[in-house]
Each structure stands twice: as C-alpha cells, then as structure tokens.
Write a structure and sequence with these properties.
By secondary structure, the chain is α/β, with parallel strands linked by helices. The protein has 11 helices and 11 strands. Helix 1 packs across helix 3, helix 1 packs across helix 4 and helix 6 crosses helix 11.
Length: 293
C-alpha cells in the first residue's frame, strides 16, 4: 500500500525527483518503489519524456485502481471508527449560498443540541465546484440544487425554490412587467457560465430568439452581492429566498417577466456519492436537513 501511495504521487507530479521531495524520501528509494511495482505487476508503468515521465497504458490502469483502493481504505477506516463512536467525528458539508441561508442554521442547531461531539466542516461555494469536490471524496454531502443528471451522485429532494430577475428599485424596468426584448439594452451581474442557473438563463433567452444577457460582472458569490447589484444598477438572477432576505435592506425588487419566461423552478436537496458510506453523524444530519426543508 505504501508503494501504491508513492506511485500515485509520482503519477500526479510526472516527475520522480519532485515526487521524492514531496514525500520526503530519496529519489533512489522512490525509484526502488517503482521497480518493485513493475516487478509485481509485470509491466512498465512509466516512460521517460525528457526530464519528466509519463504513464504507460498499464500505468494509467494501475493509477485508476490505486486511487480507488485508497478511497476504499479511507472509507473503511471512517466506517470502522464510526461504529464505535456513535454520533461523533465530523461531517463534511458543501452548500450553495441559498441553502446555507435557509436550511443549514436550523439543522446545525439541532445537531449541536443532539450530538455536540460532531463537528460540521462547512464549505460554501458554487454548485458546480461543490459537486466536483463531492465526486473526489473531499465532501460527504452537498446541499443545493438538484436535477443535473449525474449518475455518480444520488439525490434526495427536501425543498424547492425559484430564481428570478432582480434589480434595484430605481432600475428602469422596476415596477413593470417586462418582455424578453426589454432586456437587450441592459447589462447583468451573473454567475460564471459553468453554473447551472447561468446556463439556464442563457438558454431561456436563446430559446426565444433573443441574444444572451450582456454581462458586466461575473461573480461566484451572487447571494453575497446585494450591495453590488444595488450600486451598479445591473440586473441579476437571484433566488426568491435570498431576495426575501436582503431585498428590503438594499432596495432590491423582482422584475416580473411576461409568461414567467425567466422564472427558473428548481428543486433543492442533498447529494452524496452513489454507493458511498455515510457515517451515523452524516446520516443524522441529512435527516435534520430534510426536517428543516
């Protein structure tokens, strides 16, 4: 297992000396490790390319399986430890800003009263980034929008939400029902193009024969930017829940759109890796999240 762990590091860095430095062992010791693996698996694992090395086809196969074995051993260790500890340990949670505002406070409060030994490691971020961290086993669960058709992740719906166009009360479109054509002369503050809500908004315009929104500011923290929306006079696309939270404080209002053409109805819930082990603390926290929803 140690040899496989060292092999993974060499494969990740593509350089024997750098890997040895990162592992705090000598290059010769690391080279012997690779030799042992090549003898054991009867295959050449690396090819030299200048001063670097790259995986052979056999090396790529071994890397995929070695990473899977490391994850399985880590999961087994956590599972075994949790059997004797009950509701203790940590729960690694990724959350979109909207769910962090209206689901997590109640669930965290209930968990602290019920199981004060549990530590919730909370990371707030964009849903696409959190999903990728979940796939890599860097998070136990993600709380956020559902419905992106990912076979690796299992969904549990606990709530629903709507995302709408918002702007400052002084915006020219405020107080009227807008058509899609009305937006052509105004600019927006939006999420990056990799985010599902941004993709939906762009597709809604293009699907009606209108140009995609003219973006002036791109941010990965829409929910944290109410003052920016207010002071720039830009349009934005925000959860109705978040608008209810900060709308009055920053004089932000919803811009109704004809036929609700720019109202995104989305499901909210919990995501975890399909088939992954969930500790008792994680399972209990999921139950509390569902109750909060």
């Amino acid at each position: 297992m140690r040899d496989l762990s060292y092999f993974i590091k060499v494969a990740q860095l593509g350089h024997l000396s750098r890997a040895a430095e990162a592992l705090h062992i000598s290059p010769s010791a690391l080279s012997k490790c690779i030799d042992r693996l090549e003898t054991q698996y009867a295959a050449e694992l690396f090819q030299r390319v200048g001063r670097s090395i790259r995986l052979t086809e056999a090396g790529r196969l071994l890397l995929d399986n070695a990473v899977a074995v490391e994850r399985l051993l880590d999961q087994t260790q956590r599972q075994t430890a949790s059997l004797g500890q009950g509701l203790s340990g940590s729960v690694r949670v990724g959350a979109a800003a909207t769910s962090a505002d209206y689901l997590l406070p109640a669930a965290c409060s209930a968990l602290q009263k019920e199981a004060p030994a549990v530590v919730v490691e909370l990371q707030i971020g964009m849903n696409d980034v959190l999903r990728e961290q979940l796939r890599k086993d860097q998070l136990d669960i993600v709380v956020g929008p559902l419905g992106q058709g990912d076979d690796e992740l299992q969904e549990q719906q606990i709530s629903s939400d709507e995302v709408v166009v918002v702007a400052h009360r002084s915006h020219p479109l405020a107080g009227r029902v807008a058509t899609l054509g009305c937006f052509a002369e105004y600019r927006w503050l939006l999420s990056p193009p990799t985010v599902a809500t941004r993709q939906w908004l762009d597709a809604a315009f293009l699907g009606h024969g209108q140009p995609a929104p003219a973006v002036a500011i791109v941010t990965n923290a829409i929910a944290a930017a109410p003052q920016l929306i207010a002071e720039t006079g830009l349009l934005s696309f925000v959860s109705r829940r978040n608008l209810g939270t900060f709308g009055r404080a920053y004089d932000l209002v919803e811009i109704p759109v004809e036929d609700q053409a720019l109202t995104l109805h989305r499901r909210f819930g919990i995501l975890h890796r399909a088939g992954s082990y969930l500790s008792p603390a994680t399972t209990r926290f999921m139950t509390l999240l569902a109750e909060a929803g």
